[in-house]
Amino acid sequence: MTEAYWNAFFELHRDLPREGPGLPSDVAWAAEVAGLRADARICDAACGPGADIAALKAAAPLGQITAIDKMPAFVDQARATYANDPAVTLCVGDMAEIKGPYDFIWSAGAVYFLGVKEALSLWRHALAPGGAVAFSQACWFTQTPSAAARAGWADYPQMTDEAGVLQQIADAGYDCVASKRLSDAAWEAYYTPLDARISVLSDSDTAGTALADVLAEARAEADLWRAERDSFGYLLCVARPV
Q1: Using one digit for the tens of pLDDT, what is the confidence trace for 137-159?
Q2: Which of 16, 84, 112, 229 is the most exposed place for a label (fewest CB within 10 A)?
Q3: Dist. CA 18–CA 11, nearest whole Å
């Protein structure tokens, strides 16, 4: 991607509350399934602007959270909220290189950058004994997605169905303790603020070609999910090494 693209991307995403679908209740569910202790050591891998940190703190009120993201702009946004919180450490870094030991690794909508099997294999060494990984992963909910849905996910040809995600977990040497689909409300928690931001920027007199392209791309993504939500979504999984 060009510098102009990334400048436009961050102009759109600046100060959005989150960078993907999810709700605090999803974090709470995963923490409960994992049997998270109050003093757990947690890694928020690819934390974005820190949307899930508050829910992770609520799940482990005596714990320590390390939140990491490759994008300095997102880490800076999270630091605006948590810079003085002794329970939260924010850092720019690669989620493929986390060290641990962690009792719980949380990753919302980001493992597709590595692959499910690859991410879980890399993170095994970062888990403390008895630790668990919770992640959400895009997948098909039907064996016959529409041409529009397939076109929308053309850049991710390795996308599989729910059974395929569970098989990838098993192939990494993990047991899927539980899984569930993210709700429509979880998706709207991302897309509704994004819609509002698109509207504001679309009305701006300063929108250049790169920004117009980024706005169109984001609008098409939201429109696709709303039209095809029955055929794809995110599967939230809690997995533990066997």
Answers
A1: 999 999 999 999 999 999 999 99
A2: 84
A3: 14
The angle at the Cα of 163, spanning 159 to 166, to the nearest 5 degrees, equals 90
> What is the Cα–Cα distance from 146 to 214, expressed in whole angstroms?
24
> Identity (one letter) of the amino acid at 214?
V
- Percentage of residues in the chain with pLDDT exceeding 90? 92
What is the average pLDDT value for the chain, to the nearest integer? 95
d(CA 81, CA 15): 12
- Strands 174-181 and 127-140, bridge-based pairing: unpaired
d(CA 49, CA 233): 22
* pLDDT score recorded for residue 1: 75
Question: Which residue's structure tokens are 């290189």?
Answer: 97
Biggest CA-to-CA distance, the chain:
56
- Measured distance CA(101)–CA(125) in Å, rounded: 8
